Amino acid sequence: MDLFKKCLDFETARLARADGSYPYFIPLDRNEGTEVVYQGKRIIMCGSNNYLGLTTHPKVREAAIEAIRKYGTSCTGSRFLNGNMTIIEELEEQLADWVGMDDALVFSTGMQVNLGTISSLVGRGDFVILDKEDHASIVDGAFLSGGKIERFRHNDIEHLERVLKSLPENAGKLLVVDGLFSMEGDIAPLPEIIPLCERYDVRLMVDDAHAMGVLGGGKGTAAHFGLTDKVDLIMSTFSKSFASIGGFVAGNFDVIDYIKHHARSLIFSASIPPANTATVLAALQVMREEPQMFADLEANGDFMREGFKNLGFDTGHSVTPIIPIIIGDNELTFKMWRDLFEAGVFVNPVISPATAPGRQLLRTSYMATHQKSQLEKVLEIFEKVGKANGLI
Predict the structure, then answer these.
(1) Given 85, 233, 317, 319, which residue has the most CB atoms within 10 angstroms?
(2) DSSP secondary structure letter of residue 17
(3) Which pLDDT does position 276 carry in this prediction?
């Protein structure tokens, strides 16, 4: 049998492109933060992870440009050998200080952080425990580790305790949860999770890819709850609030040093480019100098959540600027996406397996830099499209 037969027979994307309902890999002409340009048309962006709007901040842009002038475009090698730079180590010091940990380690992508961290710490005979809504990078890191995987129902503390109680006392155990879940905008209940970790001798890692810059004064989920000293590892990406690409993990010095020497995704990848590193440093500086942006982001999220609820939309369990519009049907989800896009609003359609069957949704997210007039326009368009499709 030809290995490529499944590729030749793959019709789903082809048919969706043909009827205009294909929602992925949209080639934007320009991305200006709260608005994008597609085929000459301006569209309000409500599907980005650019929560603080820093991709267009003058200080952040200038830092990236200046870094290229000073360092060039790439380090052309792994940090393990010839690709490490003082600017990267400076960033690690600042990130560790920002999240309140001893040390931090920078990777070239967020995906690599979870692959490398989990697979280097967890081995055969160990257990890795995951929330069923954890990000795919966490799941892949768990599979790559060779450890035994246990999963518990999303944010179900009783089920989590049953899982932990069933594990052998003498085995190594790592629990990994998203701090802020990226599809429905709800938060991991760390005040309930941490006592269980302490009771059953489990190490805790929090993926703050979407929480960093959003919760806890921008410092993440543990800071949001005042529990940073109770969390063992915090990771985050740079491709959301930090307006760049890459990621890091922070924790105890000895643990970070061990990961540094065992994470294959770090050792065998080229290091993060200087421009991306300088971007994150500048973003951190802006966060420190302009803390009002965190309040602006929260206010915009509250405004939109209340607006959607008043219109009759189901926003699930969201308590953050990530606000799902629960639809529950594949065809209607894609129809709503297309109608909204054509009317001038960019959102993300999410269907199974990215979300549970019956929870198909439109993922919307908001920025600190969205203007009230833009948000009011989005609600107006949602009302029109929602009524036209019988959703409200």
Answers:
(1) 233
(2) H
(3) 98
Q: Which of 46, 121, 35 is nearest to 366 (CA)?
A: 46
The Cα–Cα gap between 338 and 377 comes to 17
Do 123 and 86 belong together in one domain?
A: yes
Distances (CA, A) of 192 to 183, 189, 196, 214: 22, 6, 7, 21
pLDDT value at position 148?
98
Q: Are strands 322-326 and 361-365 parallel, antiparallel or unpaired?
A: antiparallel
> Closest Cα to residue 325, out of 113, 47, 91, 68?
47
CB 216 within 8 A of CB 358: no
- Measured CA to CA, the distance from residue 370 to residue 392 in angstroms comes to 25
Closest CA to 211 of 228, 229, 192, 198: 228
Whole-number Å distance between alpha carbons of 125 and 55: 43
Which of 289, 314, 331 is the last residue in one of the domains?
A: 289
Based on the fold, state whether residues 63 and 163 are members of the same structural domain.
yes
pLDDT at residue 21 in the model = 85
pLDDT at 245: 97
Total count of domains within the chain: 2
pLDDT score recorded for residue 48: 94
- pLDDT < 70 regions, the chain: none
pLDDT digit string (tens) for 135-189? 999 999 999 999 999 999 999 999 999 999 999 999 999 999 999 999 999 999 9
Residue 45 lies in a domain: no
CA distance 129 to 150: 5
Q: Which residues pair with 107 in a beta bridge?
A: 247
Please write the tens of the pLDDT for every residue from 204-228: 999 999 999 999 999 999 999 999 9
Last residue of a domain, one of 289, 306, 325: 289
Note whether 327 and 242 are same-domain residues.
no
Residue 145 is encoded by which pair of tokens? 């580790």
CATH number of the domain within which 338 lies: 3.90.1150.10
pLDDT given at position 353? 79
DSSP E strand boundaries for 240-371: 247-251, 322-326, 345-346, 348-350, 361-365
